[in-house]
Amino acid sequence: MADSSPPILIESLTKRLGRGVLALDGLDLVVQHGQIVGLAGPNGAGKSVTMKILLGLVRPSSGRVELFGEPAHPGAKALARVGALVDGPGFVPYLSGLQNLRLAAKATNGGMGEADIERALGIAGLGEAIERPYKTYSHGMRYRLGLAQALLGQPDLLLLDEPTTGLDPAHIVEIRSAIADAAAAGTTVVFSSHQLSEIERVCTHAVVMRGGRLIASGSVARLRGEHDSLDAAYLDLVAGNGSPESSADLRSPAPVEHARGSAPPAP
Amino acid sequence: MIAAELAQQWRRPRTLATLGALGCFTFALTIALALSGGGDLQRVGDIPLLIVPDRAGASIPVIALASTMKFFLPLAVAIFAGESIAGDAASGRLRYALARPLPRSRYLLAKLLVALLLSLVAVVLVPLAALLAGTIAFGWHPLTAIDGSSSTSLHSAIVTLEPATTIVRLGIADAYVAAGMLSIFAFAFLLSTLTTQPFAAVAGGVGLTLVSRVLNADYLPGVAVLNSWMPNNDVDLWEHFLQRPTQTAGMSHFLLLQLIYAAVFLGAAWWWFQRRDILA
Q: Are the C-beta atoms of residues A8 and A67 closer than 8 Å to each other?
């Protein structure tokens, strides 16, 4: 397992769901070590499906998907290096937050130490509520516990699917801070969001998807270009107002590239 | 992983409620018999056996097994099998359980073994709790029954079994009942891999029991040809272990049928689960 391999490499990825729905249509993407990459796009763009394919939950119809240089498939060894919060948290409702974290720790890598659990408890920040049954938690508490589980064992790659949806501002700040801490510790982060301001604030790079295809990628500054904000650039892009040339410019292979082997441009 | 799964399921309120309800049923049955018809001849099962409950504590497990076998035990088995994977899917845990360096077949096997174990506990619990309640209420005496299938208006075929013999025969009968639940278990388990709604998987298991019971020549003479292929009908033959001599006709066919149904349903569950996209 060479660490020179990118955490994520996706080539010509296609996923056809039931009734002929094309969820992904030839997606190419490379995420390099240490990046914080935001996935943006309207509903149905393929963001969640992409993450589920990376996690081995969904099988691609065709294409190549690798995690740390190894093929991504159900049960892949590389999943030991990945933490995730996808489609919301998932815990045993009748167990306490602490029992759930211990259960997750036991199931990850064949067991973790108390230090890992203590660190996760710090991220969850639930105080005495950690002893309460999970089913009594508020939406925000559940997401914080979900993020704590995703960060158990300090994964090398963190996949977060809309981790701030429905949270109040205080919780959003906490989750943003946890993502920044993880990235500072060397974790590569990929997270999807409908809120481009969130991506602009947190991410080093961004990928814009629509209809299962990548329509732009690069550093946040490059994607924003001449626009006041990423929001404005995004709206131009998905509305098709940008000329093919300008789109091509947004797509230019920054550290987030379309294909392995392309030289990263200057940010 | 099996130990962690077992510990988790053991703490599940529905597991405790299901087993608790079965245990309580046997005590409630004993109390009801003690308060009302304990000294009257009771018709038990399809043979039938005619038993005076208050003559021996060992009569209670016979009555309890006959009372629970057609619905409550299949329901308990369907709950344990049907909720095993669909329950994880409904709570969102399935995504995180499978997003690990763990082959799906290992996850499925752990779920299967734990659900099987809990189902077995349910099937064993009923006669055990009933024997305890019965012995407390009516004492440790030989079980005497009239074998309805061998009796005529002029002759009563009386069977008397010593307590130790009764327990051995009840143990064999219970093992037969447990084996007879395999098809229901496997069908509910298959449904559990197909749906994210645990209730649907449980209802499917119970539904198969009901269909099996309804498509019975006793009620619908036109379906006699289906009788020998119904997955749950001949589980009733367990009572024959209490006859003297034991009538085993039809048992081997039924047990073979259980193995075939289990192989087909569990094989389909394994095949599908390997290919299933976890989208929700």
A: yes
Quote the pLDDT of residue A240. 67
What are the tens digits of pLDDT across the range B20-45?
999 999 999 999 988 886 677 777 77
Is B268 buried (19+), middle (13-18) or exposed (0-12) by CB count in 10 A? Answer: middle
**Testing the interface with A: which of B10, B96, B194, B279 to mutate, by most A Cβ within 10 A?**
B96
Contact A24, A207 (CB under 8 A): no
Percent of chain A with pLDDT strictly greater than 90: 46
Residues of B within 8 A of A57 (CB-CB) are 95, 98-99, 277-279
Q: Where are the domains of chain B?
A: 2-273
Nearest to B92 among A77, A80, A90 (CB): A90
Q: Measure CB to CB from residue B278 to each of A57, A92, A94 and give the nearest one.
A: A57
**Are the C-beta atoms of B70 and B39 separated by less than 8 Å?**
no
Say if residues A134 and A142 touch (Cβ distance below 8 Å).
yes
Compute how many other C-beta atoms are within 10 angstroms of the C-beta atom of residue A13. Answer: 25
